[in-house]
Every structure is written in structure tokens, then in C-alpha cells.
Automatic annotation (TrEMBL):
Keywords: DNA-binding, Transcription, Transcription regulation
InterPro entries referenced in this protein's UniProt entry, alphabetically: LTTR (IPR050176), LysR_HTH_N (IPR000847), WH-like_DNA-bd_sf (IPR036388), WH_DNA-bd_sf (IPR036390)
PANTHER family named in the record: HTH-TYPE TRANSCRIPTIONAL REGULATOR ARGP (PTHR30579:SF2), TRANSCRIPTIONAL REGULATOR (PTHR30579)
Domain HTH lysR-type stretches: 4-60
Family designation: Belongs to the LysR transcriptional regulatory family.
Pfam families attached to this UniProt entry: HTH_1
Highest taxon in the source lineage: Bacteria
Protein's name in the database: ArgP/LysG family DNA-binding transcriptional regulator
A GO MF term: DNA binding
Length: 299
């Protein structure tokens, strides 16, 4: 493969993003046959299959590597235009974040990131392995994920610690009085309705508190705002980010069911190592903002 056909790579990227040749044609404003011809020409040039045809059509391992390369080149070109002060459309920058970060510390960082506007954020809600996978596949430039990603991180990415997202176990005073009148006891946990996220943090917190895994009734709410509303409306208890809970505890809306104890998740910033002034400034700002709001892990 002496020279990459970037028009062909643009078509490959569209197929990877849309999952079909027909949808890629619509995205690019060309015919479906033109999409097929350009993919075939790219495969002939590489001497390898790049797309597994089907429903959906998905890139092969080499195809995905070419998609990642193409997206990085487009990002670097857009960043260079910005850094040189050229008139250019704002580059789209895909990030993957967990819902609690997006609702708390990242929301505080957004105004400075967007003023003046230097990119168009495309933020996907994703936790843990899914967030890391989006970065590995080139679908996201960076993500916030629990842990340093050792063994899961892609070659060519960097991992930077952000801090601890700390959770407090809370309920409304009325709910606590009804279900936890005698205190934070295993017997009460076994009966009181809880609300949990997909990450099952509450189960781990309960196990930490009582030294064993306990079964407890619970609702599952994958969106943090819905989970918080269940707690605030007094229909369940659960873990809430300390950044959201403290003001509500101070206002008397909530009480801490297990005073002095909390659950913490160590967050890291995983990003492709694309070294331009724009991407470097973005990473520096996000890391600085996170460390302003998140307590740091003590070694």
C-alpha cells in the first residue's frame, strides 16, 4: 500500500459510521454503486478485505485501523486550521463520558471549553469498557473511564488520572424515617427499595459496608437524572455523586444514611496521542477542571 486513497477512506469511514452502503451513499451524496466501487478499489489497493458485508456492514480489523487513521488525519487537519487562524468549519470531536461526570464536574468545565467555540462536541454516554472500546475503535477521540485501562487501552493513547468521583448514600428524611428508623442496618437494606445504575455501585457499597454481598430490592435507572429523581421524590434510596448531594443535604432535602462513609470511583482521561496545540489545550483544560472538583487519590 504505497499511497492511501483518502477519498476511498472517506467512503470507508461513512460505511463504518452508518453500518450500510446505502446509508453511506446518502451521507456522502453519491450513489450506492459508487460506494461499492470505492470500497472495492481500496480493498484491491490494500490486498485485503476491509468491510464484512451484511446487516450491518462492519469494518474488518485492518478496515477499522484505516478508519481510525482517517479520523485522526481529519482531526489534525481541522486542529491545524484552527491553530493557524484559518477560516474553517468547527471540527467534530467525539467524547465518551459516564452520566455522572457529565452531570457534575464536566458540566462545570463546559462553558470554558465552548467559549470561544473551537469544536463541535459529540458526546456519547458510555461507562467503563464501552467507553474504552469507542476510543480503541476511533469512534471517540477520548473518554472518561474508571481505572487506567491497563490491558484495554489502545496503542497510541495516553491515560491521565483525573480524581475520585465520590458517592454518598442518601434518601429523603421521610423515606429514611420510614425504612431506616433504627439506622443503617443490614436488615433495613434487605427491605428498603433502592435505585441503582447499570454499574451496580450500590451493591458494591453495601458489600463494603456489611462485609458480604446482600440481596436488596431495587429499581434500575441507567440515566443519572432519573436515578436522582427517584431519590428526591422519596420512592427509593441510593448513591448520589457527592458533588450533587452535599447542597441537598445542607438544604434538608436529603440525609446521609451512612455518615462518614462513601463509595469512590477513580476516573481517568483516555485520549489518542494527537499532539496539536488544540488537542493539547483540550486535554489540559479537562484534566485541570476535573482535578479542581474531584478529590485526588492519596498514594
Amino acid at each position: 500500500m504505497n499511497n492511501l486513497d483518502y477519498r476511498g477512506l472517506a467512503v470507508l469511514d461513512a460505511v463504518a459510521a452508518s453500518g450500510s452502503f446505502d446509508k453511506a451513499a446518502l451521507l456522502l451524496g453519491i450513489s450506492q454503486s459508487a460506494v461499492s466501487q470505492r470500497i472495492k478499489a481500496l480493498e484491491d489497493s490494500c490486498g485485503r478485505l476491509l468491510v464484512v458485508r451484511g446487516a450491518p456492514s462492519v469494518p474488518t480489523g485492518l478496515g477499522q485501523r484505516l478508519v481510525v487513521h482517517f479520523r485522526h488525519v481529519k482531526l489534525m487537519e481541522a486542529a491545524l486550521d484552527i491553530d493557524l487562524g484559518r477560516d474553517a468549519s468547527l471540527p467534530a470531536l467525539a467524547l465518551a463520558l459516564d452520566a455522572d461526570s457529565l452531570a457534575t464536574w464536566f458540566a462545570q468545565a463546559l462553558p470554558a471549553l465552548l467559549a470561544p467555540p473551537r469544536c463541535q462536541f459529540d458526546i456519547a454516554l458510555a461507562d467503563g469498557e464501552r467507553a474504552l472500546r469507542l476510543v480503541r475503535e476511533g469512534a471517540a477521540f477520548a473518554c472518561v473511564a474508571e481505572g487506567d485501562g491497563a490491558g484495554d487501552a489502545a496503542v497510541g493513547t495516553t491515560a491521565t488520572p483525573l480524581g475520585l468521583l465520590r458517592y454518598t448514600c442518601v434518601a429523603t428524611p421521610a423515606f429514611a424515617g420510614h425504612w431506616f428508623g433504627d439506622g443503617w442496618l443490614a436488615e433495613a437494606v434487605a427491605l428498603a427499595p433502592a435505585v441503582v445504575s447499570e454499574r451496580k455501585q450500590l451493591a458494591r457499597f453495601v458489600a463494603q459496608e456489611f462485609g458480604a454481598e446482600l440481596a436488596f430490592p431495587h429499581h434500575t435507572m441507567p440515566v443519572s437524572a432519573a436515578l436522582d429523581n427517584c431519590i428526591l421524590h422519596g420512592v427509593a434510596y441510593g448513591l448520589m455523586p457527592e458533588l450533587s448531594a452535599l447542597s441537598r443535604i445542607a438544604a434538608g432535602q436529603l440525609i446521609d444514611l451512612a455518615p462518614g462513609r462513601s463509595w469512590s470511583t477513580e476516573l481517568w482521561w483516555h485520549a489518542w496521542n494527537i499532539d496539536t496545540p488544540f488537542t493539547r489545550a483540550l486535554t489540559e483544560h479537562i484534566v485541570t477542571s476535573a482535578r479542581r472538583y474531584l478529590p485526588q487519590k492519596i498514594s
